[in-house]
Design goal:
The complex is a heterodimer of chains A (374) and B (311). Chain A has 374 residues and is α/β, with parallel strands linked by helices. Chain A contains 14 helices and 12 strands. Chain A has 2 domains: 177 residues, 3-Layer(aba) Sandwich (D-Maltodextrin-Binding Protein, domain 2); 177 residues, D-Maltodextrin-Binding Protein, domain 2. The termini of chain A are far apart. In chain B, helix 6 packs across helix 7 and helix 10 packs antiparallel against helix 13. Classes of the chains: A alpha/beta (374), B mainly alpha (311).
């Protein structure tokens, strides 16, 4: 009995010690919080008159976000540069578009990131309205692994849709051969690879297929996780890239940077104007510019398969989502400053990482909406 | 030869009697089958250690390429930039293993003593069964569990704060601590049970109190084994990714405040290995190398602690 009591006392002591060790830090954090909240009011009032950021940064020193893997390399670069310039640390978890929206809804993060705009169901689940901002555009390439075949095979949206529906089964199919006269195409079976997870890359890809092929539009449609008629699934861009790499005759859609890194060949795809275009940063910007009219009406409008002779058709925006009215004023102010920075200085870093910067008119549109954030 | 049962037994009894010609042929047969079986066992052993050595070899070859002081003194640079290291992840892992030990060790060791010394009853049986079940629960479930009891509620409660707490090293440490409990508890129980009864009786006969004899004499004698259990538990949790994904999440910054998102080696390895950047992939190998080295050292320490066990 005595032993048991003493054991309990000992355990209690251990916990007390552990808590005390922690307690020191908590006290410090609280003190820091108090100090911060005192200065927040000043900071907030000065923001309205003065944009020179240095005052606002006193309010919050860290922000957090979660979402798409597609823009993660660009965002990491942005957050690093921004931390060096303004001393605000932004943590980003690249967990995928769907998971990012979930976390935004649960308000465990200050902003969400997704390659697909919110659908009605997701909007309904949100506790308060959010603002969706395109931050950059990216190309999704049709990567293939076909020993002996030329680089940059020509493909049309219709042919890709047929491959992904399983109606074109071999590489020497007349539909592919007709597009690539003179190319030596083997009889190899086509191994189709697609994303197994809910993904913005799939959203961009299926948006393109739906706009290029009626059959696809009616039978499969555009979605983050469509019901694939055929093929094997891979998790993430890297999963699809390695699936293509491992299977001779493999085909898959991956983000431009992943295809480049994995040394995969990728197709030139026919755009709306009938031109075959290689995926590049410039061709992606051209796609965004071709879709300006619809994007200016609604920034979440898809840009895939827009008009323009130089436009690469399989492209899409990636978006950041922030609450229109921030729960935490200090964080809201800091986030607002960051978003302005991303639209101006941040855009200059995009091209080096294979992302297309936004057209000027969309940047202006974004800056206007950022000003409405509270 | 003969399908009925008595026949082989008679053959055996024949062999026992001195019958030179038959015995020698039988001996050859036995020697051959002996050697064949021994060879098969040896082959299986080699097959078992091949993956281990291949993993060690490959991780070392790939990891050593990025081993330089910067790997331990710098944080990861954004993809595309050269240099950088895994300092934040190494520190984060050490911090969370430390926090986990604050929870796992007292509960595990005291619980183990209870089970061994006082747990020969129905309650002890239930606890033992429960810890075995806890040991078998996939680590991802522990992560989700801690997310729902420690991340979401705390996030809701601190939302209005200037620095709200959501994903934190506290939560990561809690998840890892829960994972430590069954390992520490069961090894402590087994080791403490091995301490000879005579030691306890001797201590009591000399007028020692029960609690003092249990803590000083019994636990003292079992010290080496308990330390082994502790080190093995730490080695196990140090490499866990799943419980941290939803709890400590991830960070690219050096962080010593447990109330913030914190990087850890396994999560950083996972995210860097799947990134499109070559240099990040190389750093992931470096992280894997450091993690394997840490676990190897802990395992060696565990062996050493067992060997040093005496009294």
């Amino acid at each position: 009995m005595i032993f048991q009591r003493l054991c309990a006392a000992g355990a209690a002591l251990c916990f007390a010690a552990a808590l005390a060790g922690c307690g020191g830090n908590t006290a410090e954090t609280n003190a820091a919080n108090d100090a911060n909240s005192a200065s927040t009011t000043n900071a907030a009032s000065s923001t309205s008159s003065d944009n020179s950021a240095s005052t606002t940064t006193e309010g919050a020193t860290s922000l957090s976000g979660a979402g798409a893997t597609f823009p993660a390399p660009l965002y990491t670069k942005w957050f690093d540069s921004y931390n060096q310039a303004k001393n605000i640390k932004i943590d980003y978890q690249s967990v995928g578009s769907g998971a990012g929206i979930k976390q935004l809804t649960a308000q465990t993060v200050d902003f969400g990131a997704s390659d697909a705009p919110l659908n009605e169901k997701e909007k309904a689940a949100l506790p308060s309205p959010v603002l969706t901002l395109p931050t950059a555009a990216g190309a999704v390439v049709i990567a293939y692994n076909l020993p002996g075949a030329p680089k940059n095979l020509k493909m049309t949206g219709d042919a890709i849709a047929k491959i992904y529906m399983g109606t074109i089964k071999t590489w020497n199919d007349p539909a592919i051969a007709a597009l690539n006269p003179g190319a030596k195409l083997p009889t190899t079976n086509i191994t189709v690879a697609h994303r197994s997870d809910g993904s913005g890359t799939s959203y961009i890809f299926t948006n393109f297929l739906a706009s290029a092929s009626n059959d696809w539009k009616t039978k499969v449609g555009a979605s983050k996780s469509p019901t694939w008629p055929t093929g094997i699934g891979g998790k993430g861009n890297d999963g699809v890239a390695s699936a293509v790499k491992q299977a001779p005759g493999g085909i898959g859609y991956v983000e431009l940077a992943y295809a480049k890194q994995n040394g995969l060949s990728y197709a030139s795809v026919q755009n709306k104007d009938g031109q075959f275009v290689e995926p590049t940063v410039d061709a992606t910007t051209a796609t965004a510019e071709g879709a300006l009219a619809s994007v200016q009406k609604d920034v979440t409008a898809p840009i895939a398969n827009s008009s323009g002779a130089k436009a690469y058709p399989i492209a899409g925006f990636t978006y950041l989502m922030v609450y229109q009215t921030a729960k935490n004023p200090a964080k809201g102010a800091a986030l607002k400053e960051f978003l302005k920075w991303a639209m101006t200085d941040g855009q200059k870093q995009a091209a080096a990482l294979d992302y297309a910067p936004l057209p000027k008119s969309i940047v202006d549109l974004n800056l206007k909406s950022i000003d409405t954030l509270k | 030869m003969n399908p009925t049962l008595p026949a082989p037994s008679s053959a055996v009894s024949d062999r026992v009697r001195p019958l030179p010609p038959m015995s020698s042929s039988l001996m050859t047969k036995r020697r051959v089958s002996n050697n064949v079986m021994k060879g098969l066992c040896g082959l299986a052993t080699i097959l078992a250690i091949i993956p281990l050595f291949l993993v060690l070899y490959y991780v070392t070859i790939q990891g050593i390429k990025v081993m330089n002081p910067a790997f331990f003194t710098e944080v990861q640079r954004p993809a595309g930039d050269p240099g950088g290291g895994f300092k934040h992840a190494i520190v984060g892992t050490l911090m969370m293993v430390g926090l986990a030990s604050c929870i796992g060790l007292p509960v595990g060791i005291l619980g183990g003593i209870y089970l061994s010394e006082f747990g020969q009853n129905r309650f002890g049986f239930i606890v033992r069964f429960a810890t075995d079940v806890l040991n078998g629960i996939p680590s991802i479930i522990i992560g989700v569990f801690v997310y729902s009891i420690a991340v979401l509620p705390v996030s809701r409660a601190t939302r209005e704060w200037n620095d709200p707490i959501t994903f934190s090293a506290w939560a990561g440490g809690l998840a890892l601590g829960i994972m430590m409990i069954p390992t520490v508890m069961r090894t402590t129980e087994e080791i403490v049970r091995l301490v000879p009864q005579s030691l306890r009786e001797g201590a009591l006969a000399l007028g020692d109190t029960r609690w003092h004899s249990t803590l000083k004499i019994v636990l003292g004698a079992a010290k080496g084994g308990v330390i082994t259990g502790v080190l093995l538990a730490i080695a196990r949790i140090a490499g866990e990714t799943a419980p941290l994904l939803f709890t400590a999440a991830d960070s690219l910054y050096m962080n010593l405040n447990p109330s913030k998102q914190t990087a850890s080696l396994p999560v950083r390895i996972y995210l860097s290995a799947t990134s499109p950047d070559d240099h990040w992939n190389a750093l992931a190998w470096g992280g894997a190398f450091v993690l394997v080295a840490m676990i190897l050292i802990l395992s060696l320490l565990a062996r050493y602690a067992t060997r040093a066990r005496n009294v």
